[in-house]
Amino acid sequence: MSSRRMDLDNTDGTNYTSFSKVQPENTKKIVILGSGRFGSACAQGMRDSYIEIGKGQGLMRCNVLHISATKFMRLQFSDMVDELYGAEFVVYCGTHLPNYTRKLAKAMKEARKNTTDSMEFIDFSNPDPVYEKDDVSGAIDMHSALMADGDRAPSVVSMGKVLDDEDDDWDARTDIDDEPQPWKVWKITEVASLDVAGTEGTRRGLVYGSGTSKGEVPRVKMPGLVWERAPHEKSDLIGEAHHRIMERAEIDRWYDGFALGFAVFCFTSFYAITRYSKDVNGSEPNEQIVMYLLDKAFAWTGLWMMVVSPYAGNMLAIGALYEKFGSLPFMDKCVTLLSTVLMIIPCVFISISWVLWIFFRNYFFRGAERGNKNPLYQAQYSPDGYTNGIEGSQAFYHSMLVDMVTLKGETGNVGFFYALVHSFLGFIICDVAYKGYWFLPSGRLGWRFEVSMMTGAVSTTLLFCVALRSLFGHASWIRLKPLYAYMSPIGMWFGVVHVMAFGAKGWNTLFNKNYHNGQMSITFVSSMLPACVLLVHHLMGTFGTKKRISSKTLWKHSMIYIANQDFKDICSKSAVKKLEVETQVPLDLLSLSSRSFKGV
Which of 127, 187, 339, 457: disulfide with 132, CB 3.0–4.6 Å? Predict the structure, then answer.
């Protein structure tokens, strides 16, 4: 095509000058769509980049055309084709890619028509799977649009599986990447604007792709990035969408754990302040609230957060045992009844924190709602334990208890955070100015308080090892069993003794109105919940009672369940979009899902 320049009129009055069709010698053209912070950084990095020509045939400099994605998509179709003509790579750094895939794919195919040049698409967009979940399938939709119109035989793709046109059964297709594909679509993750700009040395860019060979990465050599192909079993675009959604769900679990910890901290802070403040039931001046009184709340919250998962496990076990109570052996019936009595105190004490947690998590996860349904408390299985629960059915208490159990790692680490804060504050508070009654006339601690300090130090050390192992991630049960089966409960018991040694001597005045107007002591309220929970846990473990319900169907944490549902929706919608592009006939997603996606 002849060289020309063309002014591109935009709706905001800005004029762009088109890219000259005659490129400088020994360069390859790259079109970057997106003028935001990331897009500008990517353009900066691409200007210093090279494109590999063949295999071992040399490198050529990049000649970059940088355009706003929104303004580019407003161009006339012929102008879009002119701008894309001769481009080796089209790099997308904008948002809302699914809205543009059909038009952009059509322009790319037209620009590459009647040429021998290759043209590949790189998607750098980074949508949030919750608040921008409609954008997650952008790269998938782009590849489907590029492969339409006879480029490849139509197929309904979902989670790396293909539906046979003559059979409703799903046939696993384990290696579709080895077939030659006319279009390559790449998805790059785990990179930031400074990484693509090349301002901080070399970073890793994780590569997913469709229409590519096994282990293949983009031919463009950016100075700030080293391409690393994702694991082969999930290296395609569907795998990237799944990884993105599940990774966000794992972070949401941490948010949920922090919400539970903050709910407990709100209750414990209120209780400590009302019991000790001179304006309510105590004698401490309000100046001591910020550190002295809140230190009690930090210690209390840390202790409770260590046992919320065993608490929920005990409650689920007792409920399951009562469902088959008539068929239980006599000893298991006795254990179940005794456990029920012991769990009354924990249920009463944790009730206010439970209500606060519901409020906090409902507010924080409000963006995950679908219509007028709250997916946090959805039933996941019907009573037979095999099929999905009825759509929209609620299992409020059961789902919350399951969430508490499955948050054992997160709540344990959150609890250790509060306990560690208490340990640091304890160095300051352990002084005669704050705790005069702790000390003997010699200036040394009394024996009860030495026991308390010693057990607290041991508990913190043991639980630190457990928390550190949890942060390291998963490992074999051989490595984890000594920590979670032995070290963790021992550390919890030392924490309980640490609290009891402070105030157990005064428990005879728990409901005496002459002492803090009858408000129960913090040492009693804070220690009884973990003590009862641990006793029930050990009681059931000793007699093997929980083994009677080992066949129960396991539920997922609510955020993991929501993520799985969102992934199924993305697969379904993407397949529908693919068929719509290929057939040019709108399809009803609801009628399609009953047949094509029953195995998802």
Answer: 127
